[in-house]
Design brief:
By secondary structure, the chain is mainly beta. It contains 6 helices and 16 strands. InterPro entries: OMPP1/FadL/TodX.
Length: 443
């Protein structure tokens, strides 16, 4: 990697690390697409070779891209809310909307042809979406149910929605740097590999009411940011069946990440938070000279990460230490299946138009509504539009817009486990919008 490229990657990594409260569009907490071209096509990208985001989509695509650089930013706006109603104790009923709704999410990719059949590049991308920032004070402090869970708050301000003190929320940011090598096996087929180098940062606030259920209450909440690093690998294949049809497939291993030591009393496996295994397959069909239709299927295996996939009801509720052990409570995310459909139309030599749709099964069940007040990743449907406009033969601007339709999950409050079913029902909601712009340069 050249010194210039190292500097660029370093700057992008620093931006990702320093950006406060980075959030992402969600299939669970994976982005709906990586790279502005894919984002305009509902995320469909496995069998497409349009930009330098193969390290996130399909490493084998990079050798078809040529010498190229892409840099962009996405304005992302998730609107999240939570409500508890129907509690026999009226002090438990309340609602709140999460603040911190506007986020800037950077993206970067670079590719260099080593010769006609080999390329070396890098993709810098992120995950997130487990992000909330409720101001707190939604529940009155008048000696009700919350006082039993958080007596230390009795002399202070009103409680937050989870009976904690002060603001309530979490912030998770995951940054992945993917150096990518791709090789043309012959004129129609390629393979690629991307070592995945991960950095993640996390903090949690306002969870004091769960101190009595933590194996390490001193490392449960309000500890500020903690970070960890780790690694994994993504491999991919791309094949041009004929002039009309291209297929692709990619597999990413679970990324083994270091533990969040400041939150080993919250996450299962004493602060463990690996990035889940995922894989995708896709097909792109050139319907005519101007129109290409792309279809992807993606599988994300959240259940393979205990802190994410373990049910929030795990272990006997009468046992104190149910937060932190290997089999302790998690967020209850199920594995998700994502279908992505995109259409690209070459309106002219300079202007290419795109549209897309993706659907995923909601990873959060009603059983886990309480824990996911702080991580309401309930989105199922994304609708997208986008375009690329060529500034000249070697440079272009790409934009993409996404709207994720509001979805909600309701379920019996986890507090009912301890209060004899007097704590009512909780509902979590989210919808999202994003608008991004990227500059691409061929060289």
């Amino acid at each position: 990697m050249s010194m210039k490229l190292k500097k660029i990657v370093g700057v992008l990594a620093a931006i990702g690390i320093a950006a406060p409260g980075v959030a992402m569009a969600t299939n669970g907490y994976f982005a709906h697409g990586y790279g502005m071209t894919a984002k305009g096509m509902g995320g469909a990208s496995t069998a497409m070779a349009k930009d330098t985001f193969g390290g996130a989509n399909n490493p084998a695509s990079m050798v078809w891209v040529g010498n190229r650089l892409d840099i962009g930013v996405d304005w992302f706006r998730p609107i999240r809310s939570a409500e508890r109603s129907g509690a026999a104790d009226p002090t438990m009923n309340g609602s709140s909307k999460s603040d911190s709704n506007d986020f800037a999410v950077p993206e970067f990719g670079y590719n260099k042809m080593l010769n006609a059949n080999m390329s070396l590049g890098v993709t810098v991308y992120g995950n997130g979406g487990m992000n909330t920032d409720y101001k707190g004070g939604e529940l009155p402090n008048v000696g009700g149910t919350c006082q039993g869970f958080n007596p230390a708050g009795a002399a202070g301000a009103p409680y937050n929605l989870l009976c904690g003190s002060g603001k309530l929320g979490i912030d998770l940011m995951q940054l992945i740097i993917a150096p990518t090598f791709a090789y043309k096996v012959n004129e129609s087929n390629s393979i690629g590999v991307s070592p995945l180098l991960g950095y993640q940062r996390f903090k949690a606030d306002g969870l004091q009411a769960f101190s009595g259920f933590s194996a390490d209450a001193n490392n449960l909440t309000n500890k500020g940011y903690d970070s960890s690093t780790g690694y994994g690998i993504r491999v991919g294949y791309m094949g041009k069946i004929n002039d009309m049809v291209t297929v692709g497939a990619a597999y990413a291993s679970k990324m083994k990440m270091g533990s969040f030591d400041k939150y080993k009393g919250l996450f299962a496996e004493q602060g463990g938070f690996d990035m889940p295994e995922n894989w995708n397959v896709g097909i792109a069909v050139k319907a005519n000279a101007k129109t290409t239709v792309a279809l992807d299927y993606q599988r994300i295996n959240y259940s393979g990460v205990n802190s994410v996939g373990n049910p929030s009801t795990n272990m006997n509720p009468a046992i104190a230490s149910t937060l932190g052990p290997v089999n302790g409570r998690g967020f209850g995310y199920s594995d998700v299946d994502v279908v992505k459909l995109g259409v690209e139309y070459a309106y002219s030599d300079a202007l290419t138009l795109r549209a897309g749709y993706s659907h995923t099964n909601n990873p959060i069940s009603s059983r886990d509504a309480t824990f996911n007040i702080i991580a309401p990743a309930v989105i199922e449907d994304h609708f997208t539009l986008g375009f690329t406009y060529a500034l000249d033969k070697n440079s272009e601007i790409t934009m993409a817009y996404m709207h994720a339709q509001e979805n909600s999950v309701s379920g019996s409050s986890l507090f009912n486990t301890w209060t004899g079913n007097t704590s009512g029902t909780e509902t979590i909601k989210m919808y999202q919008d994003s608008l991004g712009i990227a500059y691409g340069m061929k060289f």
